[in-house]
Inverse folding.
């Protein structure tokens, strides 16, 4: 029995080896793995029907109509007027930006330094004082003469049997001395008046000089204030221009972005426009349409 079992087992092993050889020859292992583990590549199929949704600014932007035969690459929708309008706006904004950036803003000139005022020259009243002293001395001298002559006349008036001519002569001298005294007093007053006039004139000159100095200081302060005001206006103009440039650049970028979104929709296949449906209008005013394209095989 043991021998029969061994023969059966031996026969089964031989049969298994034979089956393995046949399988390997008729069904290679690599082909089997490819067929069962790797997907096969299929060709892209052309759709029979294609729904194309487009956004337009106005109905005329839709370039196809129902029943129309269109070729591949045919324009279905193009927002020409919107693109033209935005392009014109873009050029105008760019022109305004170029002009604004090219415009020069001149800074204010600093005020010129005010030349110093010349000081009044020193003054002396020696001449006037000398004239006053001279006339005053003359008055004193004449007063002494008058006093002596007055005493002499009084004495002669008391002399008996005096020749009247002598008394009259001395009285004439006394009268003349009094006249000289009056003239000396006038000369003194005139000298005093000249000295007072010189002093008053000097005071007036000093007053005028102080006024001129104050006026020049005021003019200098006013010039500085004007310069500060002009400088502030200059800086404000620079700030305003920078703000305007920023606004124009922002508007220009916005318009350029809008132009970039205005894509031209073209048909990807040859076919027939089966239906055109208007779906509605969005908040920004654009119209939405759907074009049903039956693709030609």
């Amino acid at each position: 029995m043991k021998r029969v079992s061994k023969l059966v087992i031996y026969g089964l092993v031989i049969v298994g080896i034979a089956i393995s050889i046949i399988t390997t020859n008729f069904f290679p292992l690599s082909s089997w793995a490819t067929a069962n583990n790797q997907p096969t590549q299929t060709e892209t199929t052309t759709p029979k029907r294609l729904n194309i949704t487009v956004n337009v600014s106005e109905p005329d932007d839709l370039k196809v109509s129902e029943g129309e035969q269109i070729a591949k690459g045919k324009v279905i929708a193009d927002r020409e007027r919107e693109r033209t309008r935005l392009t014109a706006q873009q050029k105008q904004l760019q022109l305004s930006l170029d002009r604004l950036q090219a415009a020069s803003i001149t800074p204010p000139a600093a005020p010129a330094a005010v030349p110093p005022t010349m000081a009044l020259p020193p003054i002396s009243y020696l001449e006037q004082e000398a004239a006053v002293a001279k006339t005053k001395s003359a008055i004193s001298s004449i007063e002494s003469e008058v006093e002596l002559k007055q005493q002499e006349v009084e004495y002669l008036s008391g002399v008996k049997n005096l020749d009247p001519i002598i008394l009259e002569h001395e009285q004439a001298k006394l009268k003349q001395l009094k006249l000289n005294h009056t003239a000396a007093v006038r000369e003194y007053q005139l000298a005093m008046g000249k000295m007072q006039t010189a002093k008053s004139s000097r005071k007036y000159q000093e007053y005028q000089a102080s006024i001129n100095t104050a006026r020049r200081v005021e003019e200098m302060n006013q010039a500085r204030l004007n310069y500060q005001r002009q400088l502030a206006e200059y800086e404000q103009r620079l700030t305003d221009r920078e703000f305007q440039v920023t606004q124009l650049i922002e508007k220009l970028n916005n318009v350029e972005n809008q132009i970039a979104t205005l894509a031209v929709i073209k048909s990807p296949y040859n076919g027939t426009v089966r239906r055109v449906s208007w779906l509605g209008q969005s908040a920004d005013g654009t119209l939405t349409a759907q074009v049903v394209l039956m693709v030609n095989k």
Q: What stands out?
A: The chain has three domains: 2-37, 45-79+262-297, 126-244. The longest strand covers residues 271-281. The radius of gyration is 64 Å.
